[in-house]
Amino acid sequence: MFIIYDWLVEKRNSLGIHKAPVASNVVTSLFPKNIADRLVKSKKKKDEKRESFMSANCHLRTYLSGGQGKTVGQETIADLFPIASCFFAEIAGFTAWSSTRDPAQVFTLLQTIYQALMPLL
Length: 121
Hints:
This protein is mostly helical. Helix content is 63%, strand content 0%. It has helices at residues 2-30, 33-49, 56-64, 94-99, 103-117. Helix 1 packs antiparallel against helix 2. Residues 85-121 form the Guanylate cyclase domain. It comes from Nitzschia inconspicua. InterPro entries: A/G_cyclase. This is Guanylate cyclase domain-containing protein.
């Protein structure tokens, strides 16, 4: 019985070892390096603390009742950029137009629109 248990544990560990680089590659391909590093660091902290499980409903209740956003080992990843702005717009036909253009042309159009609207905002 212990031999089977030992074999199952070894199999599970080897699966985890093989999947770790794949997961790491996914994280680094989705996020900028500084965010990916913070996610990995946060995960390591959580693994070290071995926090108890809290359901999503409990997280929501805690947040809505005025509790901090950080509960049970969660770290909020947010940065302040005081000299930054976001611009949301619906541009008719933009998808079709941009799909036939070079990225530089698309950027130039968006930059021109943004610069024209900046004095109005």
